[in-house]
Design a protein that fits this description.
Length: 219
């Protein structure tokens, strides 16, 4: 376990993985994403799963089917690997399905559609954030949960900030951060009609935006 470079700190029962992101913070994020019984008996797609904390959390909270997907961290340009996910999956005796696929290659014809699609910490890594939201939307027939870095929240108009080089978090793979009106408008454009949103600072540093967006089932 210690030979793995962990991002998520995951409670495996007999041990907690030494992740960069603390267990208490991940639990607080999971409570914000999966409040009440939001995923009980539901199908859940976790886009950008990395070590899989949110995938395993959805399973433990009673989801009927959970599919974890990643490419950026499992074999792409991110600094992570799939080793942590595989180790935790085995240790937890998990039934979560793992599919290595890029965001822009997500296809409902291959994986089906899901009650809940989780899209955390991905949007600001995309050079085409609107296109990424479209792919995530295609995988959801009800609820999409988006979590992202946010910026320009003092501006009432819908705007998005572009970051040059490593200006956002010292990471050159970060490109865009929207304000709340911008993200809501993008989601409206692709068919979502009802929203619940919150700006948080769970990590004590960057402002983060969480939006729960539902589609109109009568469309």
């Amino acid at each position: 376990m210690r030979d793995i470079t962990w991002f998520h700190s995951i409670d495996l029962g007999e041990a907690v993985t030494p992740g960069f992101k603390h267990h208490w913070l991940l639990k607080a994020e999971a409570d914000a994403y999966f409040r009440s019984d939001l995923v009980t008996d539901k199908s859940v797609l976790d886009i950008g799963a990395w070590d899989g904390f949110m995938s395993f959390e959805a399973e433990q909270r009673g989801a009927g089917r959970v599919v974890a997907t990643d490419h950026f961290c499992w074999s792409g340009p991110g600094w992570g690997t799939k080793a942590g996910f595989d180790y935790a999956h085995s240790a937890l005796n998990s039934r979560v399905e793992a599919v290595e696929v890029d965001v822009f290659e997500l296809d409902p014809a291959r994986l089906g559609t899901f009650d809940v699609v989780l899209f955390p910490g991905v949007l600001y890594h995309l050079k085409d954030p609107f296109g990424g939201l479209e792919r995530a939307s295609a995988m959801s027939h009800d609820l999409l949960i988006v979590e992202t870095a946010t910026a320009m929240n003092h501006v009432k108009e819908p705007v998005m900030q572009f970051y040059l080089g490593n200006e956002l978090g010292g990471d050159p793979t970060n490109f865009f951060a929207p304000n709340e009106p911008c993200l809501c408008n993008m989601l409206k454009e692709i068919g979502f009609t009802r929203f619940q949103s919150a700006i948080t600072k769970l990590d004590g540093a960057t402002d983060r935006l969480i939006i729960h967006a539902w589609k109109d089932q009568n469309q």
